[in-house]
Amino acid sequence: MVLMGGVGVPSISICFLFQTRPTRHLCLKFRLKHSLSYSITSMALTNNTTTNERKLPILLFDIMDTLVRDPFYQDVPAFFGMSLKELIDCKHPTAWIEFEKGLIDEMELARKFFKDGRDFDLEGLKTCMRSGYSYIEGIEQLLLSLKLNNYEMHAFTNYPIWYQLIEDKLKLSKYLSWTFCSWAFGKRKPDTEFYKEVVRHLKVDPTNCIFVDDRQKNVEAAIEVGIRGVHFQNVNSLCEKLPLMGIDISTNEDR
C-alpha cells in the first residue's frame, strides 16, 4: 500500500466538518481531530468489551491491499490516461501524504495533486476509486470468522477522510472499527509514534496486539514497539499464521 495509502465509525456529517475547514484553522482542527479519535476509540472499546472481560489479543488491520484492493495502481492511472510511471512522475510528491494526515482538505488536494497545478475531475477520481474498491479474495470470510469468535478488530491505516468511500461500498464496519486512520491522528505508518498512540488508546500491553499489513516496513515498525506483526501476502498464508499466534479462525461448520 503506497502513495494512496483505517463499531466506532464517526458519522459522515461529523467527518466532513474537517474536510471543509480552511487550512488556516489547522491548529483547531488538530485539537478537534484528537478529541474525536479518542472518542471513537472509547466507543470501540465499549462495543467490544464486557464489564469484567476483554478478549485478547486485539487485531489491527491495515486496509489497502490487505483487506481491500487498492485502485491506485491500475484504475487511477487509467482514469488519467497515463501509465503508473507517468502518473508518479507528474503528481505532487507530498500532496496525497498531506491529505492522508488531514493536513489539507480535498479541495486543496485537487489544487496541488499535479506538480503543474493542472485541473482534473475530482468527483470523477472519487468515483473511479469507489468503483475499484473490493474485498481481497477470501478476506471477508476470514473477517466474519474472527467476528463470530468475538475478536476485537480495528483498522490501522494510512488513509484520508475518503475512507468513507470504502465504508459506503463495502461496509467494513460490520467486522471492525475504523479507529486508527491517519487523517484523524495526523500521523502515518511507519512512524513509531503512531503505533505507540494506538497502544495508549487501546490501554493494553503491545504484546496483546497483532498487526497485519502488506508492507514489511510497517510490520517491522510494529515489532519495534512490541506489537506482534504479520506480513500479509495472501489470505491462505494469513489463515496459516493466525492460529500459530493463538487466534481461533474456526467456525461452527469446522467444529
Automatic annotation (TrEMBL):
A Gene Ontology cellular-component term: chloroplast
A single GO molecular function term of this UniProt record: FMN hydrolase activity
Pfam families, per the entry: Hydrolase
NCBIfam families: HAD-SF-IA-v3
Protein name (Swiss-Prot/TrEMBL): FCP1 homology domain-containing protein
Organism of provenance: Glycine max
Taxonomic lineage from the root: Eukaryota, Viridiplantae, Streptophyta, Embryophyta, Tracheophyta
